[in-house]
Amino acid sequence: MSNVIRTVLFDLDGTLADTAPDLAYALNEVRREQGLEAMPFEQIRPVVSHGGIALIRLGFQLEPEQAEFEPLRHRLLQIYQDNISTLTTLFEGMETVLDRLEKRGVLWGVVTNKPAWLTNPLMEQMGLAKRAATIISGDTLPQRKPHPAPMLLACEQTGSQPEQCLYIGDAERDIEAGRAAGMKTMVALFGYIEEHDQPEQWGADSMIDTPLSILDWLDSNTAISA
Fold it and tell me: Is 11 one of the annotated active-site residues of the chain?
């Protein structure tokens, strides 16, 4: 049964949803509060997948051990929480992907390093919480990606074996976690890939340029569970 994909799992930021506009807004609001000019969106976008720490590093050239760092990160997340779905959308074509998976009886879910207090409201406000078969956040377990434990919990919750799952993400830790769990893996090149990243070296089973290519890959490479 290893060629049957029963469950498709997504990273959240930069794979399922385009969250960069709201996170960029939050970072630039913090910069404005500190008397700094807004940074270009194109500069912020590639960093978004790596979370608040990476954004504060980018926006203020600070490291976590510096005294100013944590208050700025806290403020960033506060602003983001208040504007969590203002500009965020599914990537173009993703709604079609989810609809088709559901019609085929293929489960889908999310495994993200985003903490639950941000993940859950975002999924709710996007109307996805009840549709997802599993939502694993960065603080659901003591471990987070690239550790395989969150991936294996998603398998448990969907009643799927790892080899029956496809995990799609836009960061090396996503592919590392999926592979360590024994899943098929796919790089979302439409996500938040940094200039120095080399996704072709991450060892994924596939790399895709658009969400609709997920359906093409499933049709071409696997027998899909009915």
Answer: yes
